[in-house]
């Protein structure tokens, strides 16, 4: 589809200029090529909707109301604009037809996430004729937005239209229900009595008083002027008047009650007092009840501190804070205000006059919302809360980059408040506004408390002051400027003034050092020489330490060898004493001693016809230490065996010596030798 697109930017020039400036703050990269004298709005027009430029656009009717058209137009991003819109956003305009139906009056310019063409959009090629003034003087032809074109535009969301209609019906029913439940009673006089405020209530009869008595005990009971009711005596809520009431303290009971025309009691003086208030009362014999409520804590304290001569004046002052005549009733202003706001919101949604132009497409069908894309993500360079964990950082990143909506869910204690506070900070430092809403006042105040010390957060706490916590009250309208300036002052003090003071001290110290520069310089030279000498000494010490460490290592190795020798000697000693024990070796340095003290003497056993191992015949024999030990063990074991038999041998010798039998001469000689050996 092709044609001309006539766009009038002049009717709402001030608002459009403000919006364009905000877009520049949020997306400075878009405006890299703006001329010095060119406004942001004119730059955007020249970039996307230049006069006489033919381009491709997506257009949609975001209104859900019949015969009400709200057009949203955004460019189809091609190579040229892709280089400009490098962060995943694009710029769209919203407009409506002028009365003649010949051109669009642009009333809003916004930055939105760029997406492919959506189901409810139509793609067209159009030549834009964009003007800031004199649009009426232009001859218009081939205007693309014809009645036929409008009729062909897809509905943004049928399900949203149906659901919003149901919500409207529900709000109408809710409004009527609230009206039917509001009760009230007329009072004709009020008085202050010490710490109580007295109300003279008027009822049709005693039953009416009993029926209303349950409402007297409710905390939300308030005082209203006469026009809160359509009728001056029979309460009928006047919903046309948006009237706020004045809160009173707790109900403390009934003081007295009576019928106005009952003469069987002692209340005539009180009746006379009330006659002037009841002249136009439509009830013939009304029932009077005088009830009392506590003054507020503040009023009670003021009464106690008030001088005696000022008591009456102060009572009159307190009395004048309330309507002289009116109604006691439960305030429903808040509920009706809420319903009116909700109806207004629905109406704006239907017209498409909302911040998010395509919200109706996914409001009741979340699957239609655009999904977060991984490219062109906004990166967080500065975290307000430095202890935030990785999962919380990920949630904040996704909130910053969500095209339409981001939902986060988690049980208590998982850090949702931390994430919300961090996200608000991140949006704020990017010059974006944030509305924080919750059903619970404490939830909002907890978030405010997390952001309390940041001067970059300029927040206003809205709501009923009585329900706002102490943390939240510093952000209320009457306190926020003072708190904000205090925060700035503290931030400037910490980050600038203290730094400057420190710099001043540093400069003074530097000047003192500068004045002593010559002495310091000489000291530096002297210390440099000393340092050089110390370094030489250090190197010598290092060398000495290295040599000593080498000696220590040698000693350790020597000690290790000695320890091994000691253990070996212990094993040898054990064998020598017990002829049993673990294996040992005979090293070269022990070989000579062993030869002289053990082996060589044992060699003499050969003369006694005892066989000796012939492998170790001299001290110079080249036998391994293990082999020597084996020979030594064998020889000692043999000697031990011989030693054990010596007593028997002696007996045998003695026996042979005294025996009368003739002994062979050779044998006798051998016996003599053996005896001599035994005495050795």
Low-confidence stretches: none
Tally of separate domains: 5
Instruction: Give me the secondary-structure category.
Output: alpha+beta
Radius of gyration: 55 Å
Strand order of the largest sheet: 10-9-13-7-8-12-11
Q: What's the story with the biggest beta sheet?
A: 7 strands, antiparallel
The coarse silhouette is elongated
Helix content: 40-55%
The proportion of strand residues reads 5-15%
Query: Given the structure, what is the number of helices?
Result: 19
The residue-averaged pLDDT reads: 84
Distance between the termini: 138 Å
Compute the number of strand runs.
Answer: 13
Give an overview in words.
- The chain has 680 residues and is α+β, with helices and mostly antiparallel strands.
- It folds into 5 domains: 153 residues, no CATH class; 161 residues, no CATH class; 107 residues, no CATH class; 101 residues; 78 residues, no CATH class.
- Helix content is 47%, strand content 14%.
- The protein has 19 helices and 13 strands.
- The strands form 2 sheets. The protein has a 7-stranded antiparallel β-sheet. It has a 6-stranded mixed beta barrel with strand order 1-5-4-3-2-6.
- A hairpin with a 6-residue loop joins β4 and β5.
- α5 packs antiparallel against α10, α12 crosses α13 and α17 packs parallel to α18.
- The longest helix has 62 residues.
- The radius of gyration is 55 Å and the shape is elongated.
- It starts with a strand and ends with a helix.
- The mean pLDDT is 84.
- Keywords: Coiled coil.
- It holds the Pfam family AAA_11.
- One of its GO terms (molecular function) is 5'-3' DNA helicase activity.
- This is DNA2/NAM7 helicase helicase domain-containing protein.
- It comes from Fervidicella metallireducens AeB.
């Amino acid at each position: 589809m092709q044609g001309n697109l006539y766009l009038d930017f002049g009717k709402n020039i001030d608002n459009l200029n403000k919006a364009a400036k905000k877009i520049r703050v949020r997306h400075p990269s878009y405006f890299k090529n703006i001329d010095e004298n060119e406004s942001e709005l004119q730059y955007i027009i020249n970039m996307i909707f230049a006069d006489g430029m033919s381009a491709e656009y997506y257009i949609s009717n975001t209104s859900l109301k019949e015969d009400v058209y709200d057009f949203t137009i955004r460019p189809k991003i091609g190579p040229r604009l892709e280089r400009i819109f490098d962060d995943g956003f694009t710029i769209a305009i919203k407009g409506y037809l002028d009365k003649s139906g010949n051109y669009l009056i642009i009333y809003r310019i916004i930055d939105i996430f760029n997406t492919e063409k959506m189901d409810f959009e139509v793609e067209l090629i159009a030549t834009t004729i964009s003007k800031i003034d004199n649009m009426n003087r232009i001859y218009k032809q081939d205007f693309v937005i014809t009645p036929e074109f409008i009729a062909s535009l897809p509905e943004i969301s049928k399900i949203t239209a149906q659901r919003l209609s149901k919500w409207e019906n529900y709000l109408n029913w809710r409004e009527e229900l609230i009206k039917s439940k509001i009760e009230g009673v007329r009072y004709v006089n009020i008085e202050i009595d010490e710490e109580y405020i007295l109300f003279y209530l008027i009822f049709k009869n005693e039953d009416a008083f009993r029926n209303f008595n349950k409402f007297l005990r409710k905390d939300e009971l308030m005082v209203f002027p006469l026009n809160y009711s359509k009728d001056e005596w029979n309460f009928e809520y006047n919903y046309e008047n948006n009237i706020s009431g004045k809160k009173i303290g707790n109900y403390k009971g009934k003081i007295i009650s009576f019928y106005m025309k009952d003469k069987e009691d002692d209340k005539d003086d009180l009746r006379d007092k009330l006659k002037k208030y009841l002249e136009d009362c439509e009830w013939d014999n009304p029932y009077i009840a005088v009830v009392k409520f506590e003054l507020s804590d503040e009023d009670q304290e003021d009464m106690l501190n008030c001088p005696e001569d000022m008591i009456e004046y102060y009572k009159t002052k307190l009395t004048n804070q309330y309507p002289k005549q009116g109604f006691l009733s439960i305030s429903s202003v808040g509920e009706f205000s809420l319903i009116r706001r909700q109806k207004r919101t629905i109406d704006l949604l239907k017209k498409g006059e909302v911040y998010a132009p395509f919200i109706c497409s996914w409001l009741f069908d979340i699957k239609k919302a655009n999904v977060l894309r991984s490219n062109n993500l906004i990166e967080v360079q500065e975290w307000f809360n430095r202890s935030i964990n990785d999962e919380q950082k990920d949630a904040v990143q996704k909130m910053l980059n969500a095209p339409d909506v981001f939902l986060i869910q988690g049980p208590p204690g998982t850090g949702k408040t931390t994430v919300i506070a961090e996200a608000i900070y991140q949006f704020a430092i990017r010059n974006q506004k944030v509305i924080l809403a919750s059903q619970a006042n404490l939830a909002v105040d907890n978030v405010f408390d997390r952001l309390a010390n940041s001067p970059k957060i300029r927040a206003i706490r809205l709501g009923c002051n009585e329900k706002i916590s102490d943390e939240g009250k510093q952000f209320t309208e009457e306190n926020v400027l003072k708190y904000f300036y205090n925060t700035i002052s503290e931030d400037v003090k910490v980050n600038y003034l203290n730094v400057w003071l420190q710099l001043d001290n540093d400069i003074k110290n530097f000047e003192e050092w500068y004045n002593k520069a010559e002495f310091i310089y000489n000291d530096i030279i002297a210390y440099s020489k000393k340092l050089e000498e110390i370094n030489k000494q250090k190197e010598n010490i290092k060398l000495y330490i290295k040599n000593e460490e080498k000696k220590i290592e040698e000693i350790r190795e020597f000690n290790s060898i000695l320890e091994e020798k000691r253990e070996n000697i212990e094993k040898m000693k054990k064998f020598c004493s017990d002829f049993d024990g673990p294996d040992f070796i005979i090293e070269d340095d022990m070989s000579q001693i062993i030869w002289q003290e053990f082996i060589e003497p044992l060699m003499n056993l050969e003369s006694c016809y005892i066989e000796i191992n012939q492998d170790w015949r001299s001290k110079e024999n080249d036998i391994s230490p293990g082999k020597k030990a084996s020979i030594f063990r064998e020889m000692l074991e043999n000697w031990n065996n011989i030693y054990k038999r010596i007593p028997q041998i002696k007996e045998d010798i003695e026996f042979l010596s005294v025996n009368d039998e003739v002994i062979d001469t050779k044998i006798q000689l051998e016996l003599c030798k053996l005896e001599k050996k035994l005495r050795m």
